[in-house]
Specification:
35% of the residues lie in helices and 23% in strands. The protein is built from 2 helices and 3 strands. The radius of gyration is 18 Å and the shape is elongated. The relative contact order is 0.11.
């Protein structure tokens, strides 16, 4: 009998820790860079900002703004036809 190939999923957390511990990625410095880059747009209530070659997407709460994801640079949402 042939063994079925096992699918292995690697979480984003595991990838981040691998880069940090095996390759010396300074996660704190990257986090601070993103925060500093995002701050001006977040302070005026933006939902996203294009920086470098990516777009940072924000989630606003009463006490803070969180960068929740990083997307490829380009339109935030696909063009959709508006209907009334």
């Amino acid at each position: 009998m042939k063994r079925r190939r096992t699918h292995v999923r690697v979480s984003d957390h595991a990838v981040l820790r691998y880069l940090e511990r095996e390759h010396g990625l300074d996660v704190s410095a990257v986090r601070q860079h993103l925060a500093d880059t995002a701050r001006p747009a977040a302070e005026i209530g933006a939902i996203a900002v294009q920086v470098e070659k990516v777009r940072l997407l924000f989630q606003h709460s009463p006490r803070q703004v969180t960068v929740v994801t990083v997307l490829p640079r380009g339109p935030l949402l696909p063009n959709r036809r508006r209907t009334k």
